[in-house]
Amino acid sequence: MHAWPASEVPALPGKGRDLRIHDTATGGLVTLDPGPVARIYVCGITPYDATHMGHAATYNAFDLVQRVWLDTKRQVHYVQNVTDVDDPLLERANRDGKDWVELAEGETALFREDMTALRLLPPKHYIGAVEAIPGIVPLVERLRDMGAAYELEGDIYFSVESDAHFGEVSGLDTAAMKLLSAERGGDPERVGKKNPLDPMLWMAARDGEPSWDGGSLGRGRPGWHIECVAIALDHLGMGFDVQGGGSDLAFPHHEMGASHAQALTGEYPFAKAYVHAGMVGLDGAKMSKSKGNLVFVSQLRRDGVDPAAIRLALLAHHYRADWEWTDAVLAEAVERLGRWRAAVSRPDGPSAEALVEEIREALANDLDAPAALAAVDRWAARQGADGGADEGAPGVVSRAVDALLGVAL
Fold it and tell me: Binding site for Zn(2+): what residues are annotated?
């Protein structure tokens, strides 16, 4: 599966700072110190509907991670998946009378268009669940053969008790885990499971649903968590730098994925940091496909909204915060974009060297994009008030905003 085209990232003078970021597993800030190549895995979409602002906010956050790393002169090895076969996708296809493959391909194509418009840097490897099945089957067989998985009426389940570190990613107690498991695709009430929290690794073929040859597992399709584990291990290996996604993925998805990988390899940890973006709401509730309270990136673009303004609206909120999308949020972003473009359109202006360092420091401090935006606001206000004699300053600001914030002025 192909990703989307990359926008050019301008090179800036000097060198950025190492990233301090909030790690869900430890509950505090950690300073990431990757080698020459930083490794990041971000969980992708289930393509049964268009990209909404919640998706955009999450992927924007991890685009900032990449930009901070690139500014430290590192290479970035970024991997993202597409869950192109799963219950929600099949249910939507049945509801709308569409072929599930056609639905997945169409929505994935629209996602690529949205990511290109927002100038989010693409993954090096963009892998669909279906194409990953040949690599998933041997992992499930290995877990079963080593006693970390078991069969129940043809389905294969992972035993959470096989990983001594289970629970360390989310830090939740058993009661909270059971509740979230039921809400987020698990089946804690199924009779016969060794532990109610045990997640499915391989679902035996069901009538009327797609299935694949699973070797000794029989025909079926993979569970949600093992999909990402297989892709991450194949392309990044154990101990990569950041596992990312929305805060609703901390449990069960990232918790289970870590345990799968740690049981398979006997190594710890799966990822050095687990980083989670907040939820975007609309009309008082989390924006979600199940609720239907969605603002789509593609619709805003069709309505003539500049993608740079959409991106500024996202950047105005700290990535870990839960926030509400409103018309006022977008209006403020459109106004800010206009002020910034007017400021950099002048032939000279106040010196920009300190501004570049302010942006760098803000982003290195747990991706504090609102502080970075405020710094640019102050420079733009000075440009309007007293100008300046630095002929190169507007160009420096334009390149810095592009390179570090992904906004083209």
Answer: 43, 228, 253
